[in-house]
Amino acid sequence: MALIDLFVSCVDEGEASTIRSALLEQRLIACGNTWPISSAYRWNDSVEQASEVMLLVKTTEDRRTEVVRVIDELHSYDLPAVSVVQVEAGSPEFERWVEESTKP
User: Rounded to whole angstroms, how far apart are CA atoms 5 and 60?
Assistant: First the structure.
C-alpha cells in the first residue's frame, strides 16, 4: 500500500489541531505534526505575508480523497493549500503501523 504525506498550511494551531483531531478520530490518518511557519504568497493581485501553522499528516493513498474532503470542510481558507507527497520508502514497521492505523 502506498504511503503519502499531506502538508496543509493553517491559520493557527487551533485550526491545525481541529483538523488533525477530526482526521485521527475518523481513522483517516495515522498521525499529524504541526510547527509554526512564516508564509509569503500572492493572493488577489497582491503579495501577502502571514504567520501560519504547517500541518503534516501521514496516511495511505487510498484515504487521500477523504482526507482532503475533511480538510476542505474544516479549513477556514477559501483555498486551502494542500500538497501531497508520495513516500518513496519507509521502514516496514512504520508502513504497517500507518496502514493499521488508517483501516476503517
Answer: 8
Q: How many domains does the chain have?
A: 1
DSSP conformational letter for 62: G
Count Cβ atoms below 10 Å from residue 82 Cβ, excluding itself.
17
User: Contact 71/19 with Cβ under 8 angstroms?
Assistant: yes
Range of the domain at 73: 3-101
The CATH number linked to 76 is 3.30.70.120
* DSSP-derived secondary structure for 44-59: TTEEEEEEEEEEEEEE
Q: Residue 81 and residue 3: Cα distance in Å, rounded?
A: 20
Report pTM: 0.93
The rounded distance, in Å, linking the Cα atoms of 74 and 25 is 14
- Is residue 72 scored above 90 in pLDDT? yes
